[in-house]
Here is the input.
Amino acid sequence: MAAAAESARLRSLLEQLPAMGRLLDLGCSTCPDALTYFGAGAQCVCGVDWDWLALSAARRAYRGRALCLIYADVRSVAFAPHAFDTVLIRHPDIARALQIWQIALKRSADWLRENTGRLLITTYSLDESLQVRALCDSIAALRAIRLDESRLAPVALNGRDCHALCYVLST
Here is the structure.
């Protein structure tokens, strides 16, 4: 039941984004929501994590899908500019890895498709959300956009994806 509620919340967030196309999931772990991404219209999902075992599990679970998994540190992974329609960062551990996520957020702006690309960040707590907002607001290339909270599914009991922030490239 909790997994269904988590997927519903995530799906309701993704439905507010323009065409999903190519999605980058930074810090993807086992990429447990890949099917939700594909169901929301992602044609290709790229996941990045530095946990080899988690990525191996994801490779086994999603064999045959348009899923690219990269073993790398989010601070050093390289992509072509404007390569993704959506960059997703779910539950960054800001308290323990502030500098890592600060760099990842800044680099994410370079990877967003111009005009339509979206950076979506979700957190468990308001405090984390405020910290992420401060980091993103300090990045000149990003501009916050509002999500329609009335269209969001309820939060699961564990609070996953409770707070969501969405950004576009500022022009």
